[in-house]
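REQUEST
  id: r-88c1
  op: predict_structure
  target: AbiEi antitoxin C-terminal domain-containing protein
  payload:
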Amino acid sequence: MALICHDSGVATTADLNVADVLSMQDGVIARRQAIKCGYTPNDIRRLVRRRDWTVVFAGVYVNHTGPLTWRQRAWAAVLDLYPAALGYTSVLPNAGATIHVVVADDRKFTKRPGVVVHRRSNLEEAVAWNLQPPRLRVEEAVLDVASAAASEIDTIAVLADAVNARVTTAQRLLACLAKRGRYRRRAFVRDVLTDIAAGTCSVLEHRYLTDVERPHGLPAAIRQAPTTSGRKGYRDLDYPDAGVVVELDGWRFHNSARDRDADMERDLDAAVSANRLTLRLGTGQVIGRPCSTAAKVARALSERSALTSFHKCPKCR
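RESPONSE
  id: r-88c1
  status: 200
  body:
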């Protein structure tokens, strides 16, 4: 049962009491909800005076005097602006300290510290009102964040991270994108999601596919292939016919001594147990020098198999 009635912004049933509301909303309550539950304005003033409740925003209270948790700040922001919902990064993993709230595009509002408000035209359909607090459907939030990204690389990261975190799928994002009207980088985002659905899992994997593999006619690698020797895990790119593995080291997942040790142990296992060559590439090779990297990967493949498909792209010197 949704706690907040979407039409009026108050408790959904007359038999809810203040304790129920506070319990369901992490200790946060709106003045209108307390009155709906039978409290009078005098009751509320007395609770604040006795410091049983603390004012967060005008007409929004929390039932303690200490620091607010992230969820309490989120509830306070949503109740302050209701009808409203969490949006943008506040819906996603690693939400950050700032609370992002979405409201209808014709709304006026008062700015609050630590809260960023976004207007949108399809609020009714885009929000899961039954969640607590109400929030944008995750596909809508991911596409919003991707659209606002500063660069194409950041856009890829948003989409890949959301799918890798299993909060949504590439197919669901594609379906949501198809329903959108005007959308920044629509064709690019559609292509990225299509590639993610086919197995690319990171910025570097996508750029390897689009800047190294495809333009130079390299054979299609098997993506996220399980290891067959040594430590269990997955290889970013596997060329089994050539006995060549390509690992793509993005800094976010390979930035500790333990990570590096595990990577090198897998490389050693592959070389000793399966006579497999591991090519470990980073941002410089994939994004900075894709043409040179493609030529070197092609050479490694050709020395270990009958590679015949390599060719230079228009950007090759």
